[in-house]
Amino acid sequence: MRTLIEVQNLxxxxxxxxxxxxxxxxxxxxxxxxxxxxVVGPSGSGKTTLMNLISCLDVASAGNLFINGQNxxxxxxxxxxxxxxxxxxxxxxxxxxxxxxxxxxxIELPLIFAKKDFDEKKTxxxxxxxxxxxxxxIRVNMLSGGDKQRVAIARALxxxxxxxxxxxxxxxLETQVRDSILLLFEELSRKGxxxxxxxxxxxxxxxxxxxxxxxxxxxxxxVESSLY
Length: 228
Ligand SMILES: Nc1ncnc2c1ncn2[C@@H]1O[C@H](COP(=O)(O)OP(=O)(O)O)[C@@H](O)[C@H]1O
Ligand SMILES: [Mg+2]
What we know:
With 228 residues, this protein is of the alpha/beta class.
């Protein structure tokens, strides 16, 4: 399988007054297409920072980040937007759906941002993929938590990403719903999509192909589950 993401000695330091917060303190790993990888660690360990760097929403302080073989570390904003749009779909913890719009309208939003034409067949295919067929015209605020998550996943898939990034995707979902979302991730990965999930839910992490344990901005070999 092809390497989609490679991270070398990646660092993100924040300045807080006179104190330097080492949110990421030199990490290395790679993700290949078709892999479902989770990153777990206690609150403040650097999960969101890592997700934001890989999503090209933020830039590293040092180290290298390769996306599809391109070293994006020195990329300017315009290039970052392009690489993000062409490679990455993301699902945020709070979904960021527009409640007053319908399922279909929410899913089609990325097309507007990317100035792409609407494609009814494409929208219907994506909706069927995530299990939202026939829910086109339902307002998002009427949906269950699980279906809202499906809308967020569908929206992330509209630009045909090779990598799906999810920061705490099942945070407020019940176990059963969470497992059905994981099943969907598994199906997507079989089609070659790489999925990278940040979570503090070790149960969920154990169902992914590989776990990266973060602590104080570093990757550690393995930890006791009681830490979370
Ligand atoms: N914008 C920021 N400015 C200063 N410190 C930050 C910022 N974002 C995150 N941090 C700090 O970086 C560390 C890692 O945070 P974060 O990546 O959000 O961890 P997690 O998602 O694992 O809870 C924490 O100590 C946090 O306070
Ligand atoms: Mg976080």
